[in-house]
Automatic annotation (TrEMBL), chains A, B:
Residues 1-23 form the signal peptide. GO terms for molecular function: peptidyl-prolyl cis-trans isomerase activity. InterPro entries: Cyclophilin-like_dom_sf, Cyclophilin-type_PPIase_dom, E_coli_cyclophilin_A-like. It comes from the Bacteria. Residues 24-52, 105-124 are annotated as: Disordered. Pfam families: Pro_isomerase. Residues 61-254 form the PPIase cyclophilin-type domain. This is peptidylprolyl isomerase.
Length: 310, 310
């Protein structure tokens, strides 16, 4: 059968043809609603528009990456990243490292271990180090979408303010988790040596051992494929060995600083919405013509938070 | 600091400079032994040479991918894949799909849903469908390396015969798990419609909901970066939309069929060895100058099984 006919036959057949099917339509006889069906039924008020002061547009040669900062978890880092962006610090820097099943990292290729961060030092207002911001006190007034199936690493996991997170009621603390697409703050050896001037995105199995050892600045909302679908670096830790292998960052801008016409209309499904709860439940107990044995369980980092709009 | 100097300073400094550090040397003051230190102390008998009858060499334009079949879990699939390979079925086929945070899949671009698998049909001996082989009875005579920290999906997880696996003593069954790098059998809607003629490798967060819904044929031992570091397909489910985007498979061969000089000397650390247990423990409780807060836990799919040799 030609690709043309295959496409004509549509998604549900394509799914039947070329399994496994992760997130697409199921055949008509599906018993569990599909993500598409659930999202079509969602209400406008279940979606939120990220604050443009928290939204970064990273322009790479292949396309754009949208990142939402998490200032309620890491406020000092969010503020410093905004400052760096407004000073055009990232423009012309590069993706310098892609380590398979771990992270893609970007920053200044000329950084070193002595604090001789030439470009960073030349800037006026951005801080070169920050307090660690690994955890924050649990705020019982904020919505918390708890997951029912437990977690290997933390006493409790779920979603807070749109991000995957973990909690420990004994300590009264909560923290963001290193799930796929989360954006962390690279640092030197000491816990207070990060600044946001070099960041990484998780591109493999969630390295949850990093939780509470590194600050998390936010999450990739769109364009993750431009960070994950890169050739892996062949140097130690996945660093690119030749400058020509690095991917140049054309620019990073705050959406708040863009002309209104260029800001886009990106929306994120609220993690405290009924539709998000229904999506989790449908994935926990997926049962259709293809999936005969529902897992009945789901782990935190296997849950996608839907994003829509250009 | 130039890249040249950075390299001269060696890996442990590079790690300190450009964190996070997943699997490389830790600084000299490390309290937990590093993977490198543990592997250097390992004994020859802790390593096994995979049976060349179970070892596939997949030649891609960028490099070679070594895959170990798991015939003790999926014997009919292993046998059929060997037959397909010996009939040169895969030669000239392609990686047809790369779905971000899910799978890279290869097979015949001309496959369709009517069983009209033209190339497969033209072959003599390979079967076009197989029984599902999703689970097998627990064999108490085989070594089982149990993990101590639980699992979201299964009553018990660990390693059996070199592969990550899950068990349910209540049913007496065990099964391979969809961890990063595991190779599964694509199929149509019915559970018994797979044959091994189209396979996928996991390239993201372990999609454990697929466990016991799809057969697992084996694991990528080397060259995973050639399957994971590919541009994502832009069609539904990550299929490449244009034939030119597909990556041609030059050939797949059984190592047993190669001349002795070309078979290589690949070795895999035994998952029932003391060194493997020490590696797991060091990762569970990593504590060094960089990691201040050991997780004290590890999940099944975050454990790497070391491979060495060309």
């Amino acid at each position: 059968m030609s690709r043309f006919v295959l496409r004509l036959l549509g998604l549900s057949l394509l799914c039947a043809v070329s399994l496994p099917c992760a997130s697409a339509d199921s055949p008509a006889a599906a018993k569990t609603p599909t993500p598409k069906e659930l999202l079509e039924r969602s209400k406008p008020e279940e979606w939120r528009k990220p604050d443009p002061e928290n939204l970064l547009l990273m322009q790479l040669p292949q396309g754009r990456v949208m990142i939402e900062l998490a200032p309620d978890f890491t406020p000092l880092h969010a503020a410093n990243i905004r400052t760096l962006v407004r000073e055009h610090y990232f423009d012309g820097l590069a993706v310098i490292r892609v380590q398979d099943n771990f992270v893609s990292q970007w920053g200044d290729p000329e950084d070193d271990d002595k604090g001789d961060k030439s470009k960073l030092r030349s800037l006026g207002k951005a801080k070169r180090t920050l307090p660690s911001e690994y955890t924050r006190p649990i705020d019982s007034k904020l919505p918390w979408t708890a997951l029912p199936d437990g977690d290997v690493y933390a006493p409790e996991v779920g979603f807070s303010e749109g991000f995957p997170a973990a909690r420990d009621k004994a300590s009264g603390q909560e923290w963001l988790t290193h799930c796929y697409g989360m954006v962390g703050v690279a640092r030197d050896v000491g816990p207070e040596t990060g600044s946001g001037s070099s960041l990484y995105a998780v591109i493999g199995q969630a390295p949850r051992g990093l939780d509470r050892n590194l600050a998390i600045a936010g999450r990739v909302l769109q364009g993750m494929e431009y960070l994950s679908g890169l050739p892996r670096g062949t140097g130690p830790l996945g660093f690119y060995e030749k400058p020509a292998q690095r991917l140049t960052i054309q620019s990073i801008r705050l959406v708040a600083d863009l002309p209104a016409a260029e800001r886009g209309k990106l929306e994120v499904l609220r993690t405290d919405s009924a539709t998000f709860a229904a999506l989790i439940e449908a994935k926990r107990n997926r049962r259709d013509d293809f999936y005969k044995l529902p897992a009945g369980k789901i782990d935190l980092c296997s849950i996608n938070i839907p994003v829509r709009g250009p």
